[in-house]
Amino acid sequence: MNIAPRIEAKQVGFDPTRLARIDEHFARYVDAGRLAGWQAVVTRRGEIAHSSTYGLRDREAGTPVQPDTLWRIYSMTKPITSVAAMMLWEEGHFELTDEIGRWLPEFAEMRVYAKGSTLKPYTVPAIEPIRIWHLLTHTAGLTYGFMQTSVVDGLYRAAGYDLYPPAEVDLAEACRVFGELPLLFQPGTAWGYSVATDVLGRLIEVVSGQRLDTFLTERILRPLGMADTCWHVEGADAERLAALYVPDPTSGRAVRHDALGALAYEKPALLSGGGGLISSAADYHRFTQLLLRGGELDGTRLLGPRTVRFMTRNHLPADRDLGTLSTGGFAETNLDGIGFGLGFAVVDDPVPSRVPSSVGEYYWGGVASTAFWVDPVEEITAMFFTQLMPSSTWPIRPQLRQLVYSALVD
């Protein structure tokens, strides 16, 4: 699929010389060995204003990043799963206030961690059931084992759930385990990045009667023409997949990490709605354009425009921000002035983060340093793809915003 600009950047209000700073800046990351390679795409008013690649998708093989390179998008899967859930909501299958225990009984009688250690945790009954909006906003009290910040995520790791689940465990079994573990906090009282979107994926399966991969393919990926987006790669597509890297703790240079990277070549037992997809820039561009256009693209409507606007408002309790409600362990960007909607972080006030953006802009990223945002005010979308874990290694996301917004001159 073509991802090249068809117009001059100045036609949509960008200074092309300033946009070129994106390439100059991030080329230095590659030249210094901190990234193997990357791909960036910036659009305005539905037109691609800037599209570039630099470096190698596989440094050891010497193969360059190309426009059709495939990337592990990890948590950029979450907005797609959230859109899927809201499609079912639009059809009247559930209300956002419904208890998830109605469909997933393993979550009907939850307990909440109060004190103690991983060997002897003390818990109390949840005073509020987990509701569907809690899953969409990460306010359910669930967590991730890889967070390394609490007794509860230690319990996840003890159960075998770190960055990846135990081998051969499917989504239904994972949710059964999550339902047996205590919550980090009472539902609706705080924000904790978590397996909530995986649980949401299981809810989609039970409500729709389809496996998550089938539902996403039939209802979102195929209608949008996202043919490159998949759960694993094989055959000719395997050659297009970028290698996965981590920073050397001493030098900061990107070092290949095949132990995790190789998992993308295997069909997963667990369909992770929170982090399981692989995609291309062209495919994810179509998804961002669907959002920018209020749920419709090229005659295909997946959501109503009011639903998209509703999803991208701050849904945190008392309209507070992530800086106030976050339980910690999540440091991809500054969280001050940032709310959270139904599947997306939302900018309520750009000033506290000290990074230019628009009120109402929404975004997310993946653990391998991929990122996107949609700015409905300026009608901008931006995407950045690379494969370096964790995403907090370098300040790629705020720097990309600086470069894009300083190039907007109309």
UniProtKB/TrEMBL annotation:
GO MF annotation terms: hydrolase activity
Residues in Beta-lactamase-related domain copies: 22-402
Keywords assigned by UniProt, alphabetized: Hydrolase
Alphabetized Pfam families for the sequence: Beta-lactamase (PF00144)
Source species, domain of life: Bacteria
Descriptive protein name: Serine hydrolase
Species assigned in the record: Micromonospora lutea
